[in-house]
Amino acid sequence: MKPPYHPRLPIAMILLLGLLCLLCAALHSKPAQAEPGSALPERVTMAQLLAISREQSPRFAALAQRREAAAAEVVAAGVLPNPRLSYGRNDLLTRQNTMYDGRVQQQVLLELPILIAGQRGARVEAAAKSELAAAAAIEAEFAELLREEWGLFVKQLADRRRSAVLQETADYLGHLAEIVSGRNRAGNASRYDLLRVELEHKALQTRLETVANDLAADAGRLGVLLGLPEWKPQAAGKLDYLNVSTDLERLWAEAAKLNPVLAAARLNESAADAGVERAERERWPVPTLQLGSAFTDHPYGNASYAGVSVELPIFDRGQGGMARANAEKRAATLARELSGASTRSELERAVDQLGKRRATRIKFENEVVGKLNGLKAMGEASYRLGKSSLLELLDASRSRTETQLTHLDLIQAEIEAELDVLKTAGLLTAAAAER
Q1: Which helix or strand (DSSP H or E) is residue 205 part of?
Q2: Angle formed by the axes of helices 319-367 and 248-258, nearest 10°
Q3: What confidence score (pLDDT) does residue 7 get?
Q4: What residues are paired with 305 via a beta bridge?
Q5: Tally: H helices and E strands in the chain
Q6: Under a CB-based contact definition with an 8 Å cutoff, are residues 403 and 372 in contact?
Q7: Is-contact 14 187, C-beta < 8 A?
Q8: What stretches in the chain show pLDDT beneath 70?
Q9: Domain with 192 in it: what CATH number?
Q10: Which of 377, 271, 402 is nearest to 332 (CA)?
Q11: How far apart are the first and last CA of the chain?
Q12: Could you tell me which of 157, 140, 164 has the C-alpha nearest to residue 46?
């Protein structure tokens, strides 16, 4: 007789096997990982670039790691010295015991160093000031990084304007080719004129491709600079002046407060002063409190022990540590003085360059750029009326294009000079955050 058929049993087994398969797949599957740079925007403003530099750039993370190392030194400086526990055993080797009753004596000794001269506080203070100096040095290096980033950012904006100027000229040459072609059909222009326009147009197309290649290269360089080689950001915004003041004394007052290089030099000197204080504290010997017990078991006997151990500073009185600390202090003082003098000189140079570049740009705009508006129409009308040759018309077009490109060069140079002034005055990061 066949056993009764149970239809639910295979279904339950199938469900159980399915659950086990899902569990195995979940255990062996790897979590999806986002591709590097997938969350980064394709177009960025300067403020966004600053935020990405601080929050996502591996290069800045490597800089920030140095502060973590300095913070670890603060933790290490605040740790108290460990106590020492020792154990000893005396076994009788002769038949007669003349030292103690019993054949074995054991002893336990606890030694506890006591920092009575304020060594721990001096160590912590020196390490904390070194951490502040390290943070200021990191900000100084970040300012250099930001200056390089902003320079590439400005170059992208300028190249985009250059591309627009060249494209406008290319369109005009295309229009001019139609005019020459019409004159050629009417017998008023030679094939040479038509060929000359075409060659000029091709040469301009090559310059356009070169500027496009420069734009792509600068985007890649910007990503590499931040440690994000897969990211090729495009600068968003327009090429515009930062309106930086050329008041040297006011800028120097700002630099004295905000320049990270000067701040790092001051903090290094302060850390060196704390190092001298630490070395003076370290000259004092550290006494050790000793507590222990000695006992025998056959027969049982116990004796307690208490004592103090201290190093006698006869030969080594910390002369080496003091000499090293004083030398580091003198070096830090000289470095601070040199940093102040070099920063002042650099600020004077940057302000002077900004003033000269600004004056050159304004003069060029007044004497040259203002006269470009009618040049194009006048040249084309003169050519149509037969008063000028094609070469003169092409020369006028080329002159107009080169003038516009020179104007862009002057604008870019002035903005870069403004960036140098901002960096030296310690205002670069704040200015970037506002863009």
Answers
A1: helix 191-225
A2: 140
A3: 43
A4: 292
A5: 11, 6
A6: yes
A7: no
A8: 1-38, 183-184, 186-190, 372-393
A9: 1.20.1600.10
A10: 271
A11: 90
A12: 157
The closest of 354, 371, 349 to 417, measured between CA atoms, is: 354
Give 398's Cβ-side CA count (13 Å radius).
Answer: 13
Residue 388 has φ and ψ, to the nearest 5°, of -140, 160
* Neighbour tally for 341: CB within 10 Å: 10
Range of the domain at 66: 50-309+341-434
Q: Please report whether residue 250 resides in a domain.
A: yes
Both tokens of residue 186? 């009417």
Q: Residue 223 corresponds to which amino acid?
A: G
Contacts of 44 (CB under 8 A, 6+ apart): 52, 233, 234, 235, 236
* CB burial of residue 340 (10 Å; 0-12, 13-18, 19+): middle
Q: Does residue 20 belong to any structural domain of this protein?
A: no
Q: pTM of the predicted model, to two decimals? A: 0.80
CA torsion, ordered 349, 353, 359, 364, to nearest 10 deg: 160
Residue 44 lies in a domain: no
pLDDT single digits (tens) 359-383: 999 999 988 887 766 665 566 566 5
DSSP string, 75-143: HHHTPPPPPEEEEEEEE--SSS-SSSSSSEEEEEEEEEE---SSHHHHHHHHHHHHHHHHHHHHHHHHH
Q: How high is the pLDDT of residue 33?
A: 37
Task: For residue 336, tell me if it sits in a domain.
Answer: no
| Tokens 């040459």, residue located | 173
CA distance 110 to 305: 10
Total domain count for the chain?
1
285 SS3 class: coil
Residue 415 C-alpha from the chain's centroid: 21
**How many Å apart are CA 82 and CA 428, to the nearest integer?**
48
| Helical packing angle, 119-185 and 373-384, nearest 10° | 20
Tokens representing 332 are: 């830090």
3-state SS assignment for residue 147: helix
